[in-house]
Amino acid sequence: MTQQKQISQKETILTPRFYTTNFDEMARMDISLNKKEFEAILEEFKVDYNKNHFIRDEEFNQSWNSLDPKTRALFIEFLERSCTAEFSGFLLYKELSRRIKNDNPILAECFALMSRDEARHAGFLNKAMADFNLSLDLGFLTKSRKYTFFSPKFIFYATYLSEKIGYWRYITIYRHLEDRKEHRVYPIFKFFENWCQDENRHGDFFAALLRSQPQFLNNWQSKLWCRFFLLSVFATMYLNDFQRSDFYSAIGLDARQFDIQVIRKTNESAGRVFPVALNLDNPKFFQLLDFCSAQNKLLLELNNSDKNLISNSIRKASAYFKLSTSLLHLFLMKPIDTTKTWNTVR
């Protein structure tokens, strides 16, 4: 019998978040600068290439109780986090579509069709969880989760990167498992090739939004914000995956090498839209991310320990300081001006 599982874990900076924004500002947004691009994107969304893709086949119709308990637990966590992230996108896009449809119909319809895609992804993941006798109560999740306010431009930066890094994560895993079926512990990975194309199209939509608002890309403040969001998205993935390296081992991947490849590809993609990209060839870049990951792991261990509370508090303060200063060092590294020198990182 399937039991409902309500999300109750403590939210941290690394957990999937739910967002809201200034809907009035979005409704007033002028996209005339590249309206034809939006019309073309809208037509592509309407085609709905994956309409018949997310259909479970016979391979799902078996018991998964034989999975190693550790692998099973790691995989369930992967499904839960992925479903939460996809459902977060659905809620944001759906609300944007509803709130701006009278003032900005092209954008509203694009958001409505993207919410369709995200709902399909979340539903498919939730059905996968049912194979492990679990499910997310999405209604409860909608009401219980805290919503983070981001202004539209921050939504654009963050969501563009989220969609593009999602594309590179999915396609990298798919290509890895395509010839290594012994590591494909569950059939959901077969769906990643087409699935990631949804992520890619969504990313292209947000790229068009950014290009339609030059003030979000062409001044010194924008360069700082682009650097901030690039580092935030990359560091969040890196620290999360460092904690879950056993999951990647279960599917035959080295978590660190996987993250480095995904970060490089996403940085290159972002460099075609953002005015800056991070200099990943700086030898200190991934060294500092490794150090941040170690400090974050230490913090998790200390948070789960109830021994020697005074000593733990001192060690936690030290770890927070080292983590924060290392992230600041990463942010202050000289970026690459992609409007002039993008070829240097190819």
TrEMBL record:
It catalyses: Mg-protoporphyrin IX 13-monomethyl ester + 3 NADPH + 3 O2 + 2 H(+) = 3,8-divinyl protochlorophyllide a + 3 NADP(+) + 5 H2O. Its EC number is 1.14.13.81. GO terms for molecular function: iron ion binding; magnesium-protoporphyrin IX monomethyl ester (oxidative) cyclase activity. The keyword Oxidoreductase applies. One of its GO terms (biological process) is photosynthesis. The keyword Transport does not apply. Its cofactor is Fe cation. Pfam families: Rubrerythrin. Keywords: Chlorophyll biosynthesis, Iron, Metal-binding, NADP, Oxidoreductase, Photosynthesis, Plastid. Pathway: Porphyrin-containing compound metabolism; chlorophyll biosynthesis. Residues 77-210 form the Rubrerythrin diiron-binding domain. Belongs to the AcsF family. Catalyzes the formation of the isocyclic ring in chlorophyll biosynthesis. Mediates the cyclase reaction, which results in the formation of divinylprotochlorophyllide (Pchlide) characteristic of all chlorophylls from magnesium-protoporphyrin IX 13-monomethyl ester (MgPMME). NCBIfam families: AcsF (TIGR02029), PRK13654.1 (NF010172). This is Probable magnesium-protoporphyrin IX monomethyl ester [oxidative] cyclase.
